[in-house]
Write a structure and sequence with these properties.
about 35 residues; mainly alpha; 1 helix; about 75% helix
């Protein structure tokens, strides 16, 4: 889970985590569709 904070480092980390998860989910759904 991402903890909202004023620190830029945490914001970047959360964004990276979100992107990684969206890619992972996209890969799984893509494999399921094929």
């Amino acid at each position: 889970k991402c903890v909202p904070s004023s620190k830029k480092k945490w914001k970047k980390l959360c964004l990276l985590k979100f992107l990684w998860w969206s890619i992972l989910v996209g890969e799984i759904t893509g494999m399921m569709l094929i």
